[in-house]
Amino acid sequence: MLTDTTIDLAPDGRHTADGRLIVYKGDVISDDLGLNYTLLEKLGSGNFADVYLAKDDRYNQYYACKIVKLDCSADYGAIEVNLNLKLQNLLTDEEKMNIVQMEGCFTYEGHAVIIYEILGQDMYSILQKNNFRPMNLKMIRLIFKDIAKACQALHKNKLIHADSKPENISHIKNTIISKLVDLGGIVEEEECLSGYFITRYYRAPEIVLSYPITTAADIWSLACTIAELALGLPLFWAENENFMLRRMSRIIGEFPQEMLQNAPLKDKFFENGTFIDESTWCAINNRPQHKTHCTYPGVKSLDDFVVQGDPNSALFWDLLKKMLVFDPKKRITAQEILQHPFITSSN
After folding, report:
1. Looking at the predicted structure, is the pLDDT value of residue 278 above 90?
2. Taking the domain 15-117, which CATH number applies?
3. Model confidence at 74, in pLDDT bands (50, 70, 90)?
4. How far is residue 295's CA from residue 44's CA, in Å, rounded to a whole number?
5. DSSP designation for 213
6. Which has fewest Cβ within 10 Å: 29, 128, 265, 275?
7. What is the CA radius of gyration of the chain?
8. Nearest CA to 178 among 228, 142, 137, 220?
9. Highest taxon of the source (predicted)?
10. Which residues make up each annotated binding site?
11. Phi, psi at residue 246, to the nearest 5°?
12. Is it the case that residue 255 has pLDDT exceeding 80?
């Protein structure tokens, strides 16, 4: 069985209790035109769907087959399909180069099924395979440039990817081209006044504080993602939002008072402009106190990560400093990232 066997089964025997389709290696699912896809192995699983390696029986091509949970297919599945169709119409062929492409979609036994091009390993898997050793800056520059292009294409159309992280960046097999994947969380900027999304380590401070959310949230997430490739571990690792904001402040600096004054959730984390005591915050919010040691002891600013005598390292961290600005209105844009000397340098 390719489906997770630890999840309880539903009474119908075709689904898990949480609505996932039960599939076995070699199972065949068919689209509306009679094209059959043979499921070969599981590639991944998320809150809303499972993804399988599939081979079509007509052209012998391999794809990533995303099968959305039964109770999410009518909303989440439909939204993702419509977003993909919208992107296909909005973006030029060049702009599509660094964003995963949908190859088809259909409904199977009530489940939304989305067929994507097959890609290589994601960046987290590559880090994990190499025991979380940092990547070299030459490789990071290529990845950085490709994903900044993807963000530029989305942001030009006022779309927020809303989930940049190493797991959502994959490369095309046998190439050095990287693509942004997992488009299911994309939101339109004008419809996103506030919300709570993006995996915690990559979540922009304005999201935590319920500040108005813009495409600048992607820039913060991208900076955290790229920093992790350079460090091997998350830049702002934390078990809760309070400790994460503290860690941000320790490395980036104090939060602007103007930003805090306009943040709806400022009183959840701050009192008179300063952080609420950690033990008090945990008691109020019924959270265990943070016991993990500092990931980067001795680091008090991003400049402390610069490798002395390495001009590429200095340029790299200079770019991240421009992305990791608390005030989203003052954060560098995707277009400006592509014009930064670290990206344009050929060294």
Report:
1. no
2. 3.30.200.20
3. confident
4. 28
5. P
6. 128
7. 21
8. 142
9. Eukaryota
10. 66
11. -65, -45
12. yes
| Phi, psi angle pair for 108, to nearest 5° | -135, 115
pLDDT band at 166 (very low <50, low <70, confident <90, very high): very high
3-state secondary structure of 202: helix
What is the amino acid identity at position 210? S
Q: Which fold has domain 120-344?
A: Transferase(Phosphotransferase); domain 1 (1.10.510)
Tell me whether domains 15-117 and 120-344 share a fold.
Answer: no
The total of other beta-carbon atoms located within 10 Å of residue 269's CB is 22
What residues act catalytically? 163
**With contact defined as beta carbons under 8 Å apart, do 127 and 228 qualify?**
yes
What span, in angstroms and rounded, lies between the C-alpha atoms of 48 and 73? Answer: 9
| SS3 assignment for 263-320 | CCCHHHHEECCEECCHHHHHHHCCCCCCCCCCCCCCCCCHHHHCCCCCHHHHHHHHHH
Burial class (CB in 10 A: 0-12, 13-18, 19+), 59: exposed
- pLDDT higher than 60, residue 320: yes
Q: Which of 236, 266, 263, 258 has the alpha carbon at shortest distance from 248?
A: 236
Which tokens hold the place of 103? 């190859």
In the structure encoding, which two tokens stand for residue 120, read together?
């290589």
Of the candidates 27, 18, 24, 66, the one whose C-alpha atom is nearest the C-alpha of residue 45 is 66
Residues belonging to the binding site for ATP are 66
Helices then strands, each counted (H, E), the chain: 13, 12
Residue 189 is classified by DSSP as G
Concatenate the DSSP letters of all residues of 236-270 into one string. Answer: T--SSHHHHHHHHHHHH-PPPHHHHHT-TTHHHHE
Query: Do you know the residue count of the chain?
Result: 347
Is residue 11 exposed (0-12), middle (13-18) or buried (19+ Cβ within 10 Å)? exposed
| Distance (Å, whole) CA 261 – CA 269 | 12
Bridge-based pairing of strands 159-160 and 102-108 is unpaired
Q: How far is CA 232 from the centre of its chain?
A: 16
| 218 membership: H or E segment, kind and range | helix 216-231
Which token pair is 138?
A: 């030459």
- Residue spans of the domains in the chain: they are 15-117, 120-344
> Mapping DSSP to helix (H, G, I), strand (E, B) and coil, where does residue 48 land?
coil
